[in-house]
Structure formats: C-alpha cells, structure tokens
UniProtKB/TrEMBL annotation:
Protein's name according to its UniProt entry: TnsA endonuclease N-terminal domain-containing protein
Annotated GO MF terms: endonuclease activity
Residues annotated as domain TnsA endonuclease N-terminal: 76-151
Gene3D superfamilies with a match to the protein in the record: 3.40.91.30
Keywords, alphabetical: Endonuclease, Hydrolase, Nuclease
Protein origin, superkingdom: Bacteria
Source organism of the structure: Chenggangzhangella methanolivorans
Biological classification of the source: Bacteria, Pseudomonadati, Pseudomonadota, Alphaproteobacteria, Hyphomicrobiales
Listed InterPro entries: TnsA_N
Length: 259
C-alpha cells in the first residue's frame, strides 16, 4: 500500500523516506492466529488463557495488566474483535535488523489499531533507543492507515467505575440466554427503545438472574448498558442498532453448540 505523504508526527524526514529506509515486513502465522505462544515454561510471571465469548477462542495473556486489558476488550461493545500477538513486524532500525510484535490487534466500529500494553513504570524506565524503535514501528503502521497505541495501568485508574462495572459484566460471560429470554428482551426494548437494567430484568420475572442474562447479551453485542456510572437497576440499557445481525450470530452459535 502506498505511504501517505504527510510528515511523521515526531518530525522529519517524510514518511516515505522513513519507510524506504526501514524495509518493513509484516509476518503473520499460516493460520492467521497468534504468531507465537507464551507458554514455554521459562517465564517467572503469571500467564494464562482467557475463554473469550467475543472471539470464540482462548486468548493468551502474560501479565496481569494484559489480563485487565482483555477484560476491557471483551466488555467494550464498540470492540468487534481482537487477537493477541497478531504478527511480527521486521524492519531496519539504525542500520540493524530488528522486529516488533504488538500485544493485540483490535478491531473497533471505527478503526483497527495495534496495542502495546505496558505499566507506566516500565515506560518511564524505557531507554531513548527503545522509544525511537517504537516511534519507527508506529510510523510504519501509519503508512497502512493503522496506529500503534499504548495501554497503561493509568487507563484503569482514570476510568475506575467503568472497569469495576466491566468486572461484574464479565462474570456473566458463560451464561447463554434461552430463546424465550431473547424474545422477551427484544420485545421489551423494541417497544421501549431506552429502558433500565431493573425494568428489563423484571420482564424476565427474575431480577437477579435477569440482570446477569442482560449482561451476557451485552458481551454478545446485542444490547448496550451504560457502564459509566455504578451498575444497578437504574443503569440505562438499549438495543444496539446492529442487534439483529449479532442476534443471528448468537442463535447460530447456540445451534452449533447443541448439534
């Protein structure tokens, strides 16, 4: 893809010149999955697999901050899909061959971005040459209309209420609402375009179980719940505009599961 003609945000030279010198090559796995596994038995830090409803596969994580990031990606209904370790970017940096592997690729409703997850303390300790290496990688990504963004622990502190609510919603990810429940909630929200969590749960006839079922539907991008205020009966809920397509995917998944 042809590079854009704008200047690199970190200053000259122009982006085309940066790309010509960097000789960037993006390597992906044959199965289009993660390019490497993290389970090699040699890392002295927490690792694990997250059973993702949104991605319909297990997502590997190798730090507690990555695990929290996965929760955010799983619950945020503007995120359509995501994957860890999506590719390996090989390029020239200061005359030497090097490579960079982003932690995640994230597809949202508006754009696709590559994500690097780091604690702020690690960023503060980063050497100048490492900062320049990230800047060059970002320039290469921007040449194909992508971006590299950093997610730090500050995000979870600044948006504390949202992420506390996300933890509650995440606990419902293994629930699979019945066909009757789906019919009830769709009918309720079609007739009331904007309702509350309590009112929708009451329509189920079970306030507690009903709320959990609604959270499960949010994870499947059928409904949208306002997580910016403490979660409760008065929390706003509405059908997503694309709920019909996502509902079709949910029904299809249930059919396969019971086949």
């Amino acid at each position: 893809m042809k590079a854009r003609s704008d200047l690199d945000p970190y200053g000259p030279p122009a982006l085309e010149e940066i790309l010509a010198r960097s000789e960037g090559i993006m390597e992906v796995a044959d199965d289009r999955g993660p390019v490497r596994t993290i389970f090699n038995g040699r890392r002295n830090r927490p690792v694990g697999l997250y059973p993702s409803v949104k991605c319909r596969r297990s997502i590997a994580w190798e730090s507690r901050l990555e695990r929290r990031t996965i929760r955010w990606l799983e619950v945020d209904d503007t995120v359509i899909n995501y994957m860890e370790q999506p590719h390996r970017l090989r390029f020239l940096f200061r005359g030497q061959r090097t490579h960079y592997t982003p932690d995640f690729i994230v597809q949202t409703e508006n754009r696709t971005v590559f994500v690097e997850v780091k604690y702020r303390s690690d960023i503060f300790k980063m050497r100048p040459e490492d900062r320049d290496r990230y800047r060059l990688a970002r320039s290469i990504y921007r040449s194909i209309d992508r971006d590299l963004v950093f997610v730090t622990d500050l995000r979870f502190k600044m948006q504390k209420v949202w992420h506390e609510n996300a933890q509650v919603v995440e606990e419902s990810r293994r629930l699979l609402p019945s066909d009757d429940q789906l019919t009830i909630i769709i009918d309720h929200l079609v007739s009331r375009p904007r309702s509350t969590l309590g009112a929708c749960a009451a329509a189920f006839g079970s306030p507690l179980h009903g709320q959990r079922s609604l959270m499960a539907l949010m994870l499947r991008r059928v409904v949208r719940i306002d997580l910016n205020i403490p979660l409760g009966p008065d929390s706003a809920i509405e059908l997503r505009k694309d709920y019909a397509a996502n509902l079709h995917n949910l029904v299809a998944a249930k059919t396969v599961r019971h086949a």
